[in-house]
Amino acid sequence: MAFGCVPVLKLLLLLVLWLYTLSSSQGYPKSFYQHKYPFIKKASTFSSSSSFSSSHGDRGYDYIIVGGGTAGCPLAATLSQNFSVLLLERGGVPFSNANVSFLRNFHINLADISPTSASQYFISTDGVINSRARVLGGGTSTNAGFYSRANPRYE
Q1: DSSP string for 72-130
Q2: What is the pLDDT of residues 5-19, one digit of tens each?
């Protein structure tokens, strides 16, 4: 009789583990990165009105870097050691998107065509369908670490 319970207990344990996996794959809450990284601001929170500039001073930036990808982020970090730097990225942060944060979900990100997706499809002038990143960290955040070198005849 005691051995009859074992399959039921195994099934129950698998169900609990599966539910736990689902809950942990939802990513961080959107406010997580705002607490941990207070310097990250959405562009929609800025204003060109005089009330904004007077409350923050008329401070300018030594460098403005457009694109927070593989080159933009390290460049901004290096320059910010000695200069005032503004880094602009049109996408969001990867921490709030489970399809970027978890390796097992990267394929979902590539299939997502919604306006808030971390990747964006485009068709090149010669008709090749491709995707590019629109998230802080750039393509390295969305490609699951894959890299392939082009055939030498295309270089």
Answers
A1: HHHHHHHHTTTS-EEEE-SSB-GGG-HHHHSGGGHHHHHH--STT-SEEEEE-TTS-EE
A2: 667 777 766 666 655
